[in-house]
């Protein structure tokens, strides 16, 4: 048996071990990128091969937060794809403004950059007090970073440019305090945010949402898991609620496209149609 085939078997056994021992099911993740992350994880733990890592992970529960963090790509930036935020601000905020209270769910929120981007724009639109923001991710470690809201200062220039392109009305640094070469977001932005671990591959409806953002998460999933996640969003949205995916993602092939109208194809922004709801 060649080395490549042996490694495929080791990866399959690693996935089984995570599922059977800890309930984390990565079997529906797109294979090529997942395989790279498993290989990197074995190196990260200093293991000679994946089988050796599987044995360690099976016997040492304390490794799990690190394993999940390394397998789940918590890469993000503030006001990522600024035109998406500009579109949300222009087209969706007026809809949110028609509710006395509304819920926004960020599924796969990584280190929180997307949540705080939304919080800033809501504050500038005078809508923050009416908002309840739910920030979820599979990774407990990513959520801890998100809660802290502390980021490396080197990002500021890029994020400040994104903020202006998204239609920000002030200067992004107004929302940060400098702390030992890092930037800490103003804590007033945290008031209406609930952070919670939620796994799109295993867990059920999380909240009743007026807007759901799940950006740059589905690209890591195989079609069956994409379908599961989108079905979960469909069930979670209020009538007429909005769903925003990543710009490289779409509802095509999820089996749910007919339940949604396209608000902006370029920005992967959809509205749940009345006949798309269950009631
Ligand atoms: C690339 S980041 C996207 C962050 C942000 N939404 C953005 O677009 O910038 C992908 C996030 O999805 C999370 N994720 C991966 N699998 C998940 C799952 N099964 N359930 C919930 N979150 C998941 C990862 O932990 C990671 O934080």
TrEMBL record:
<dbReference type="InterPro" id="IPR029063">
    <property type="entry name" value="SAM-dependent_MTases_sf"/>
</dbReference>
<dbReference type="GO" id="GO:0008757">
    <property type="term" value="F:S-adenosylmethionine-dependent methyltransferase activity"/>
</dbReference>
<dbReference type="InterPro" id="IPR000780">
    <property type="entry name" value="CheR_MeTrfase"/>
</dbReference>
<feature type="domain" description="CheR-type methyltransferase">
    <location>
        <begin position="1"/>
        <end position="251"/>
    </location>
</feature>
<dbReference type="Pfam" id="PF01739">
    <property type="entry name" value="CheR"/>
</dbReference>
<dbReference type="InterPro" id="IPR022641">
    <property type="entry name" value="CheR_N"/>
</dbReference>
<dbReference type="InterPro" id="IPR050903">
    <property type="entry name" value="Bact_Chemotaxis_MeTrfase"/>
</dbReference>
<protein>
    <submittedName>
        <fullName>Protein-glutamate O-methyltransferase CheR</fullName>
    </submittedName>
</protein>
<dbReference type="Pfam" id="PF03705">
    <property type="entry name" value="CheR_N"/>
</dbReference>
<dbReference type="InterPro" id="IPR022642">
    <property type="entry name" value="CheR_C"/>
</dbReference>
């Amino acid at each position: 048996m060649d080395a490549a085939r042996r490694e495929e078997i080791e990866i399959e056994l690693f996935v089984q071990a995570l599922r059977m021992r800890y309930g984390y099911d990565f079997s529906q993740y797109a294979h090529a990128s997942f395989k790279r992350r498993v290989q990197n994880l074995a190196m990260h733990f200093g293991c000679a091969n994946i089988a050796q890592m599987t044995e360690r992970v099976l016997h040492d529960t304390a490794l799990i937060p690190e394993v999940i963090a390394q397998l789940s790509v918590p890469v993000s930036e503030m006001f990522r794809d600024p035109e998406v935020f500009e579109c949300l601000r222009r087209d969706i905020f007026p809809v949110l403004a028609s509710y006395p209270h509304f819920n926004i769910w960020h599924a796969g929120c990584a280190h929180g950059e997307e949540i705080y981007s939304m919080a800033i724009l809501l504050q500038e639109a005078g809508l923050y007090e009416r908002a309840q923001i739910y920030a979820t991710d599979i990774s407990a470690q990513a959520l801890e970073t998100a809660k802290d809201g502390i980021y490396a200062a080197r990002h500021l220039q890029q994020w400040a440019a994104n903020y202006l392109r998204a239609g920000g009305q002030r200067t992004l640094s107004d929302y940060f305090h400098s702390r030992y070469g890092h930037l800490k977001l103003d804590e007033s932005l945290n008031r209406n945010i609930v952070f919670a671990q939620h796994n799109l591959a295993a867990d059920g409806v999380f909240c009743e949402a007026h807007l759901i953002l799940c950006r740059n998460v589905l690209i890591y999933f195989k079609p069956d898991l994409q379908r599961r996640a989108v079905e979960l969003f469909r069930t979670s949205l209020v009538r007429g609620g909005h769903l925003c995916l990543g710009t490289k993602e779409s509802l095509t092939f999820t089996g749910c496209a007919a339940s949604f109208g396209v608000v902006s194809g370029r920005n992967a922004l959809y509205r749940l149609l009345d006949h798309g709801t269950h009631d």
